[in-house]
Amino acid sequence: MSAQDSLQGRCMCGAVTAVARPTKDFITACNCENCRRWGGGTYFAFHVDAASAEITGPVKTVSVAPWAERGFCSACGSNVSYRIVAEGPHHGVLKLSAGLFPEGTGLPLGVEYFTDERPTAFDLSRPHEEMTAEAVRALLSGEP
Ligand SMILES: [Zn+2]
Ligand SMILES: [Zn+2]
Fold this sequence. Notes:
Layout: E1 7-10, E2 17-20, E3 27-30, H1 33-39, E4 43-48, E5 54-56, E6 59-65, E7 68-73, E8 79-84, E9 94-97, E10 109-113, H2 133-141
Parallel strand pairs: 3-10
Antiparallel strand pairs: 1-2, 2-5, 3-4, 4-9, 6-7, 7-8, 8-9
């Protein structure tokens, strides 16, 4: 896909929908403390065109820093957005959670922020056990 194609996505419960056009050909990952507290881990997101983005449904926003607010679905709690509210060159920059757009995961990771503050366990390049969806489902079903 290219940055010109619109993404169509939704939150976990479907109450919030989003149609937005990525402004970059990659997704970003952030390891800052704010993102980790918000989502429990590294925050993957798309930069999108804020002027044309259509986000509908019960989104609540919270101020999370003097310069930014985050939006979430008030029905299911899914992370929806991160917006720069501070005046300056980045005012209005809008990022939407990558998880809203399963079809958008074909875009590569382009930038990872706050790598110096990333907890050791969040570095997925380190050796660790990997399990497929099939393996996890088998585990949860009690199959050997
Ligand atoms: Zn929801
Ligand atoms: Zn962050």
